[in-house]
Design a protein that fits this description.
2 helices; three-stranded antiparallel β-sheet; alpha+beta; 15% strand
């Protein structure tokens, strides 16, 4: 179900409402003391987040790539005392 953004013309309060696509738009402010008219705003909506399996980048990699990725994940770091910028003095190969 999509989330719609509304704004009250009387009190100026903006709020989001989770509604079905076939639900009628709201007409009255959620603030019971206000009772102003609301207008549904045009918003950018939610972006897509691709996580997990089921996507090309994770499912169709070559076996060689998968093997190297596992080996690199297991390899210990060459230095335990590095700062975040790599300024420990150890040559990285």
């Amino acid at each position: 179900m999509p989330t719609y953004e509304y704004k009250c013309s009387k009190c100026g309060k903006a709020f989001d409402v989770l509604q079905g696509m076939n639900d009628k738009p709201l007409t009255e402010c959620q603030d019971k003391s206000c009772k102003g008219r609301v207008k549904r705003l045009i918003s950018s909506g939610a972006g897509f987040i691709f996580k997990g399996s089921g996507f090309y980048a994770t499912d169709y990699r070559s076996e060689g790539y998968k093997k190297r990725a596992k080996e690199e994940a297991k390899a210990p770091s060459p230095c335990q005392g590095c700062d975040k910028k790599g300024g420990c003095g150890v040559d990285k190969k």
